[in-house]
Amino acid sequence: LLSHLEQSGWARPTEDPRTPLFPQQTGFQASRISLSQFLYQPFLGKLNAPILLSLTLPAGEVPSASPLPDRTFLGSLVSLTVLLREGDFGFAGGRNEAQNLRRHLRHLERKYGTVRNFSRKHKTTLQYIFWGILLAGYLAMVIAACALNFQRAVPLFVITVAAIFFVVWDHFMAKYEHQIEELLSPGREFLDDHWSWLKWVIWSSLILGVVFWLIFDTAKLGQRQLVSFGGLIMFIILMFLFSKNPTKVRWRPVFWGIGLQFLLGLIILRTGPGLMAFQWLGKQVETFLEHTDAGALFLFGENYKDHFLAFKVLPMVIFFGAIVSLLYYLRLMQWIIRKIGWVMLVTVGSSPIESVVAAGNIFVGLTESALLVRPYLPHVTKSELHAIMTAGFSTIAGSVLGIYISFGISPAHLLTASVMSAPASLAVAKLFWPETETPKITLKNAMKMGMSDSRNLLDAASHGASSSISVVAHIAVNMIAFVALLSFVNSALSWFGNMFDYPQLSFEIICSYIFMPFSLMMGVNWQDSFMVAKLIGYKTFFSEFVAYDYLSKLVDLRKRSGPKFVDGVQQYMSIHSETIATYALCGFSNICSLGMVIGAFTSIAPTRKRDIASEAVRALIAGNTACFITACIAGILSSTPVDINCQHVLENTFASGLPQNTTDVVSCCQSLLSSTVAKGPREVIPGGNHSLYFLKSCCELLKPSTLNCSWIPNTF
């Protein structure tokens, strides 16, 4: 800067600090000048000369190295105005230029003040204009997408319509809530006056409807749905018999919770649009979580899938944690939780705090959902505290949903189980520990959830990813510990059983006998009940991660269409049993989570430490039961095809001369032909470990267009 000034004739170098720095301008002498005090900047093209400020000090004094103020244009403008007004700074352009500059700065300062006052006065109007322009642009984009290809734009159209409906509904209810209450008050008074006999009519109609539905459904699909329905009744009876206060049970939360769960399952599993919607949603979630591969590939290299769980699965937790944190920052997550909580509050009749936590558990973990209502946790009743813990045990977090999907478990069933378990948890909690106190938390307070403390979107994403580190570490260390512990327990049990000539004794065998009655009650057939019982044992005593990992191996074996029994040992289950197991395992109700809940809730509400410790075990049992009831509902409503032992069917049909056009034979032949690999004449490999004889017979029976039957050799 000094070199530039010297070349332009404005200054000359000198070794004497007392020599005038500006020889051409009298009256502007500086004893000493510090480079940190220069402000060099063209001023809006008004002045061609540079602006040079120097602190004028008495001779011999050294200027302090104070930090520069903010050198943005606005900051420089304000600082320059103040400095020129005070008169403690010299301007290198001369007195006339300095006065002109002062006038320009005062003029701009007045303009800036006018604009600022106008913005403050019309802040709301300007915000409406800004958001209106954005909304109009978005709607134009949606209309254009629908005009180009409506089939492709259906998801965007549905999301837009739903968002507009709920936003309008919120504003409408906020403005006309009292008028609506007055309008509906006559109907409410009528129900209150005649509820003594109307409730019997309503309940009788519902019971008759369920009975007739079961009769027609059983005639259509068989009797296995009746077993699941009987198991549902048995679980309700058991919860009532072991209830904390059986005489204090309010049956509205119980029936409405199970009824809402049944209605959700009916819409999702039995209606075409509901099933298609959740299958589509499951695929979208699966596709969405696959974006984690980009980060894993960048960090771990091309061979990251060689360590599937560590480098492929666990990064999904970090990615999902960042997304949830973004949704919290945008306040979308709180809005969704409030809506779902309000639905359960109105239907199930649970308290506001219970409804909010149960709704939150659909998306977040059992400890994170408690943080939604952290200020009110020390003031909840014992029944509410039990219900909050039960809701956490009976559901899974969205952050681990991607892990189970990556294992090969059906995304649609996992999403359905997460939604259905929320009302089930409230029903079981109110049955196992009825409310005997008056709740203190009002609806208005419960709906006031905490907001994100992040400053912007990037900060929110970073905070969500960082907070997932503990979750990833927890999953990793528990998988290592539990799998190693399971191996040790099986080795110890085998050593102990060998003393009694029973070396095959293992943890799986013990669990298969302990939990086998429960799997039978859920509707699993006798042959598969022992395998489902093993999975329940893994989930209860170790972790649902271990259970879903073993279930994924069974699903993979079934999809390979291999032999169902090898050396007398069953290799996989039926599709119906896999479906029931998927719902029964979908919850955090295990011993490890019990310790997490006690520790987390005690840190949030230390004054309730005694209540938390005494209620946690009952909440664990209630959470497991809620998962079992969800599995019973899935067993009633699931219409999965009955698996067929094709090896046995084809052998009996083609070897004994039985009729060959039965449904089972055709189904098995279609499965065999679809899994066959044909490279050319005499180069045909049958699928499912079937023989060439069965393949030849099926080919002659169905005469498929995709396979030339003459390619199959006659030498079997």
From TrEMBL:
Cellular compartments annotated: Cell membrane
Keyword tRNA processing assigned: no
InterPro entries: C_nuclsd_transpt (IPR008276), C_nuclsd_transpt_met_bac (IPR018270), CNT_C_dom (IPR011657), CNT_N_dom (IPR002668), Gate_dom (IPR011642)
Region annotation Disordered: where it falls in the sequence: 1-21
Keyword field: Cell membrane, Membrane, Transmembrane, Transmembrane helix, Transport
Domain Concentrative nucleoside transporter N-terminal: from-to ranges: 231-302
Mode of membrane association: Multi-pass membrane protein
Residues annotated as domain Nucleoside transporter/FeoB GTPase Gate: 310-408
Domain Concentrative nucleoside transporter C-terminal: 413-635
Transmembrane segments: 128-150, 156-176, 197-216, 222-242, 254-272, 308-330, 342-366, 386-407, 471-493, 505-524, 580-604, 616-637
Record-stated family: Belongs to the concentrative nucleoside transporter (CNT) (TC 2.A.41) family.
Protein's name in the database: Sodium/nucleoside cotransporter
Record organism: Equus przewalskii
